[in-house]
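Quick question about two entries, pasted in order.
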Amino acid sequence: MAQIKWTEPALNDVDEVAEYIALEKPCAAQKLVKEIFKKTKLLKKFPKSGRHPPEPQDTNYREIIVDPCRIFYRVEKNITSPM
């Protein structure tokens, strides 16, 4: 099973997006954050389940989509790092 390691900038981005959405729809912001962590948690069992993004090409990065967010990550020897 892979390990998920969040970077500080990635966590800050999630926080900023949630704060912005919460200005108009607090419940939607909370739902989005829960969905982001739910989907990224699935990467523990299925680290290669995300797609290769169209840009940048030929990298180790993959992405999962939690609309309106794109979560980039890479797999390194059983360690998954959202970016």
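Here is the second entry:
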Amino acid sequence: MNAITINLRFFASLRERFGASETLSLAAGTTVGELRDLLLARSDAHAEQLARSRAVRCALNQQLCAEDAVIQDGAEVAFFPPVTGG
């Protein structure tokens, strides 16, 4: 298995719950959706906060992306709730 190393970041309420960032090793070819699935399996808190039924956005290298985006070595992947403003 070829492994890649990424920087995982959380923002807003997710950051309050899980911390700002961490470094992870993943299998090469992992998608953002597969990463989310791995995180869902981590703990009850992750399963609740990152549930598919919740509106959670993802970004790959600071660009909004779909969950089928493939993560490359050295990438930054971020998860955050939708932004509201006014």
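Reply: Strands lie at 3-10, 21-27, 57-60, 63-64, 76-80. The domain at 3-80 is CATH 3.10.20.30 (Ubiquitin-like (UB roll)). Hope that helps.
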